[in-house]
Design brief:
The chain is an alpha+beta fold and 163 residues long. It is built from two helices and nine strands; from the N terminus they run H-E-E-E-E-E-E-H-E-E-E. The protein has helices at 2-24, 111-114; strands at 37-46, 54-62, 68-75, 78-81, 83-84, 91-97, 135-141, 144-150, 155-160. Strand 1 (37-46) and strand 2 form a beta hairpin.
């Protein structure tokens, strides 16, 4: 009975050790700058008309793009897809537009009328707890997925668009 307890303890300890090693080998944030970033910033976007689109854009200019492909930026609690600019492949741009307006709710004593209400959009939660101004960049380098955190993404002056 005593050996059975010892074997159970050893197996349990090995199991916990393996789980701990697996968690530690997960993807870690790279704190030093592994990307050749020339300039990075975000900029608010306001349409200037009632009901127009509002949001922000993220721009990241690289010094060299050999083997590097930026995928996503996690900023202000949002996941923003990054794509190379059509005219300049070393500049990656990502846009996030806030929902335009909240739809009016139909309140009725007839439940069938209330079924016409549109459900609110579900925003994807980002896998990082970021402070104000922090941005995490997800990218691939030589076909290996990596992540990197920018501590302070500077803001450029407001950009107004009539829409």
């Amino acid at each position: 009975m005593n050996t059975l307890r010892t074997v159970g303890t050893i197996i349990g300890s090995l199991f916990l050790f393996m789980i701990h090693i697996q968690c530690a080998s997960g993807q870690q944030l790279d704190m030093k700058n592994p990307l050749p970033i020339k300039e990075a910033y975000f900029q608010k976007i306001l349409s200037g008309v009632k009901g127009g689109a509002n949001g922000f854009l993220i721009a990241i200019e690289l010094k060299d793009t050999s083997g590097i492909n930026l995928k996503y930026a996690y900023f202000k609690g949002k996941k923003v897809k990054l794509a190379p600019e059509s005219t300049n492949k070393i500049v990656y741009i990502g846009h996030y537009m806030y929902p335009r307006q909240i739809n009016d709710l139909i309140m009725s004593s007839d439940p069938k009328e209330e079924f016409k209400n549109k459900p609110p959009g579900i925003t994807e939660k980002i896998p990082f707890a970021l402070k104000e101004g922090e941005c995490v960049i997800e990218y691939t380098k030589d076909n290996k997925q990596e992540i990197f955190k920018l501590d302070n993404l500077p803001e450029k002056p407001l950009k107004n668009f009539p829409m």
